[in-house]
Design brief:
Layout lengths: L1 H24 L1 H4 L31 E12 L2 E10 L4 E2 L3 E8 L5 E9 L5 E11 L6 E8 L3 E2 L9 E9 L5 E8 L5 E11 L5 E12 L4 E7 L10 E6 L10
Antiparallel strand pairs: 1-2, 2-6, 3-8, 4-5, 4-7, 9-10, 10-13, 11-12, 11-14
């Protein structure tokens, strides 16, 4: 009996040793090391060269929903595009954009380019104001160029910046006033804030933007958007978007 037990123990020990040696020599095949820049999905990467142990995060596509030109004042128009960002914990340092305006013949009328910060998890507008145009473009197309995405500390469920109040004032110089609140113990500098006004058909007919030079820790700031001319209708909906840079949560 003891002889049989000893043979079983020796056999199991030999098998374990052989398995360990095999794993050691085949570790590169069984557990490939992610290089995070080899153009392949390997190791513990979630996707090609991103996620897992890589500094780069796997990102959802940031894409435009629509773009248009809206009347600002005589001879001047504002370009606006609404962008959707489904990323909840990662962002690129900036997103490049390109507005292309087409006339009724399908010819390119004008091109405007720039870059913007991308807030997390939701919709936000890109606005270029006071563009001189001789005629309204028939079609406006916006294209985005997103960069590499990195993990950020900002959380959509507990945003750093909130809009506490907003109200519209009609008149010869119409305006929208709002209160912007900083919910964190983090000073914010040069915060862009953008506004979209919607009519009864849920179409954007006026836009505005401003910059808060400094928003104190856990502080609030009153802001105001104004227009040069009376607006055609009273807005049925006003959306205000603080364009908070999620990398500021990292002290950048």
């Amino acid at each position: 009996m003891w002889e049989l037990k000893r043979k079983i123990i020796y056999t199991l020990a030999t098998l374990v040793t052989l398995a360990a040696v095999a794993v050691f020599f085949l570790r590169g095949v069984l557990f490939p090391e992610p290089t995070c820049f080899d153009g392949k999905k390997n190791g513990f990467e979630v996707n090609v060269d991103c996620g897992g142990v890589c500094n780069l995060m796997c990102a959802e596509e940031v894409k435009p929903l629509w773009a248009k030109a809206v009347y600002a004042s005589r001879g001047l128009y504002d370009l606006v595009a609404l962008i959707n960002n489904d990323n909840i914990n990662n962002s690129s340092k900036e997103i490049g954009y390109r507005f292309t305006l087409y006339d009724s013949n399908g010819s390119v009328q004008n091109i405007y380019v720039g870059s913007t910060t991308s807030p997390l998890d939701g919709k936000f507008p890109i606005i270029i104001q006071n563009i001189p145009l001789e005629k309204v473009p028939t079609n406006v197309v916006v294209e985005l160029s997103d960069g590499l995405h990195y993990k950020v500390l900002e959380s959509p469920t507990s945003p750093t910046v909130r809009i506490l109040d907003k109200r519209y004032q009609t008149g010869s110089v119409p305006s929208v006033q709002a209160i912007v609140a900083n919910t964190k113990r983090l000073e914010i500098n040069n915060l862009p804030v953008r506004a979209l006004l919607y009519d009864a058909n849920d179409n954007v007919y006026a836009v505005g933007q401003t910059i808060i030079p400094r928003l104190e820790k856990e502080g609030t700031e009153n802001i105001i958007f104004t227009w040069r001319e009376p607006l055609s209708v009273v807005p049925t909906r006003i959306n205000i978007y603080p364009i908070f840079n999620p990398f500021q949560s990292l002290g950048e």
